[in-house]
Write a structure and sequence with these properties.
Number of domains: 3
CATH topology of the largest domain: Rossmann fold
CATH class of the largest domain: Alpha Beta
Strand content: 5-15%
Strand order of the largest sheet: 4-3-9-10
Structural class: alpha/beta
Mean pLDDT: 92
Low-confidence stretches: none
CATH architecture of the largest domain: 3-Layer(aba) Sandwich
Length: about 450
RNA sequence: GCCGAGGUAGCAAAGUGGCUAUGCGUCAGACUGCAGAUCUGAUGACGGGGGUUCAAAUCCCUCCCUCGGCUCCA
């Protein structure tokens, strides 16, 4: 069985065959000029699940994610705040990483910054000028789009179509309106570096071509990002990189669908964005994670609290099964058909994920396992339970949803003490008081479940 | 205007010619002192119209609607 991935370039699902066992993946990272929002989280969770699945499949993954710390928005922000743009970028980048850590998003292998690669960028641009793909004009350097014959192959548009979009800015320095900047001349008071063309800074796009190929070689196996970046950003990356290397830049282009709120794209310019930080105040990180991971990565999704509530209840269900499994392992039985289910679920899970990382379908398989655990764990044999536990954890880890917050030792002891005392009351049939205790505990997020033995858990 | 994605039950969301998707919700039953959890069952769907076919959510035509890109964006 091989994995199939939908390649934006061919608009088809293709067999995924990396250069070797080490998959080289580049995911477009942040321009950190503000707090990370849920749209960012959607994309990074999506690629995190993809990476985790590749690892599950036995690949080693080398993952590069850029940090665009030199960019127009940051410069604008630095003027507003009267601060160094690199410091602003550093602050928001570190902050975003903390948010992403809580969402259990694995860190990339490396996070190269534009400001650390100015020399590489200058060399790259110089070479493009030498090769006749770029030209200097009044302290700026532009890529001459017409020189690159394949321009438009990713977004499947001709140069003519792009121009007729009529929103291409006319700039007298450019030979053609579709040309884009590789190097921008610095204005008074702006951050700059010296270059053969004077004081200035890199344009947007070029950093990704330079840093991705520097750390991953050419071609990259996977280049990922949100679909909104396909044009012009990724189109321009292809032009620069293939002009430079004279060979294919990326083998598989993977794009995530955008997140909308009330039907509109979540973006800073619309002011409708929800920061990860704010949402984390209200919801358990694993709830947010499950919500995001359950979206098929290529799909758009409309955010609502209702969806999060639904994810919360689903996650409760998953965690309940986990507890059930652990309980059953303390006192295994000698039978049940759990083993058959495990085999079937594993197959279904893998088939779903192999088919372009179809997480909704893969989750359906997971719920099959959850149901069967609830149904038959009590009578299952130890070996069956261990098999089930292994699969339960393997799948849960691909989704990245099993990072439960640790209970404090003291907390644990105190609650158990209350439960024991309440048990005494129940034996005396003082249900009024024991119900009151249960209700009060629930108010502070501790859920008691009376069965043969009373158990407790924290609500999500 | 051009390019792309989509419209599936109360909500979310797979499926893409014949086989119960799934989760949340709601209702009922079992279990329980009750509640919860869990199980069992029920509930209910393929945007409108036309066509192809023994058979269409799935293929074709047509119309309507939504979202994304074409401008900074994950």
């Amino acid at each position: 069985m091989t994995i199939k991935v939908y390649n934006t370039l061919s608009r088809k699902k293709e067999e995924f065959i990396p250069r070797d066992k080490k998959v080289r993946i580049y995911v477009c990272g942040l321009t950190p000029y503000d707090y990370a929002h849920l749209g960012h989280a959607k994309t990074y969770v999506a690629f995190d699940v993809i990476i985790r699945y590749l690892e599950y499949r036995g690949y080693e993954v080398f993952h590069v994610q850029n940090v665009t710390d030199v960019e127009d928005k940051l410069i604008k922000r630095s003027k507003e705040l009267q601060k160094n743009p690199l410091e602003i970028a550093d602050f928001f980048f570190k902050d975003a990483l903390k948010d992403f850590d809580r969402l259990n998003i694995k860190r990339a292998s490396i996070y190269p910054k534009v400001s650390d690669h100015i020399e590489d960028i200058i060399n790259f641009i110089s070479r493009l000028i030498e090769k006749g793909y770029a030209y200097e004009s009044n302290g700026n350097v532009y890529f001459e789009v017409k020189k690159f014959k394949d321009y438009g192959k990713l977004s499947h548009q001709s140069i003519k179509d792009i121009i007729s979009g009529a929103r291409v800015s006319i700039d007298e320095n450019k030979r053609d309106p579709v040309d884009f900047a590789l190097w921008k001349k610095a204005k008074e008071g702006e951050i700059f570096w010296d270059s053969p063309w004077g004081k200035g800074r890199p344009g947007w796009h070029i950093e990704c071509s330079v840093m991705s190929t520097k750390y991953l070689g050419v071609p990259l196996d996977i280049h990922g990002g949100a679909i909104e970046l396909a044009f012009p950003h990724h189109e321009n990356e292809i032009a620069q990189s293939e002009a430079y290397y004279d060979k294919k830049f990326v083998r598989y282009w993977l794009h995530t669908g955008v997140l909308t709120v009330n039907g509109e794209k979540m973006s800073k310019s619309l002011g409708n964005f929800i920061t990860v930080k704010d949402l984390l105040k209200k919801y358990n990180p694993m709830v947010i994670r499950l919500y995001l991971a359950s979206i098929y990565y290529r799909s758009r999704a409309d955010f609502s609290e209702e969806n999060l509530e639904s994810a919360k209840n689903s996650l409760e269900r998953i965690y309940n099964a986990k507890r059930k499994l652990d309980e059953a392992l303390k006192n295994p039985g000698d039978g049940s058909s759990l083993g058959d289910t495990v085999k079937r679920v594993k197959e279904n899970f893998e088939a779903a994920m192999d088919d372009d990382f179809n997480t909704p379908k893969a989750l359906a398989a997971y719920y099959d396992l959850v149901k069967e655990i609830n149904r038959s764990a009590d009578s299952a044999s130890e070996s069956q339970l261990l098999e089930a536990k292994k699969l339960f954890e393997d799948i849960g880890n691909v989704f990245g949803i099993l990072m439960e917050e640790k209970k404090g030792d003291l907390e644990e002891k105190l609650i158990q003490l209350i439960v024991d005392i309440r048990d005494e009351l129940r034996k005396r049939k003082d249900f009024e008081m024991s119900d009151k205790i249960r209700a009060k505990l629930r108010e502070i997020g501790i859920v008691l479940e009376d069965g043969e033995k009373t158990t407790w858990k924290k609500s999500l």
